Amino acid sequence: MEEEIQTNEHTDWHVPWSKRDVWFGAGSLILYVIVILAAGLAVNLLQLKMDIGVFIILSELLLMLPVWFFTIHKYKITWREVGFREFSPKYILLGFGLMFIYLIFNAIFSMLVLIPLGKTIQGDLFAQLAKIDWSVWLWLGGAFAAPLAEEVFFRGFIFGGLKNPLGWKWAAVISGLLFALMHMNLTTLLPAFVIGFLFAFLYHKSNSIWPGIIIHTTNNLMAFFAVSLLIKLGEI
Q1: pTM to 2 decimal places
Q2: DSSP 235
Q3: What is the mean pLDDT of residues 29-45?
């Protein structure tokens, strides 16, 4: 496997979907945001009882739809070509190293920019999480479904489709920017862009989205454990 991975890193990058497919898929994010906001508004107005975790899972599945349509369905390919490939364990170590860099960046960004403004990177997200029921669906949606769908869409589809025509750096910048904009939070914008760029770099080096999914899931799980602990201690 190691020899195969090393060979893949130096071969010409090619995916069957075009840059045009990527732009159409990226454009669907606008429709995606509208649908999610409308669905959330409808649930509140109609006072429907829906677990927020189930809502997150359905939202993430919806994000997978344009990837399926513009790759699997259109070109009759497998998910392996979207990034679900074998990888060397060394890229998990690289991923944790990149995550450490990201945490250092977050600390510096918070101290220099956000704390003086009385802000936090997550905004009022933690306060909102303290008001809802922490079901198993919330954990599955936030810690597992979200990393999976986001890595498939932004790294496997967007970055994967732009890497050959634009080069990996510009592809990483564009996919990272779209990833940041999807979070719709000004305080999260720059940190989300940085981690999106780092995940794209990880995919570029490993030729697989699995390392990104694993590190992304680990990051979200750590955040969920931290928030749940703070809630139990009454700190939120």
Answers
A1: 0.89
A2: -
A3: 86
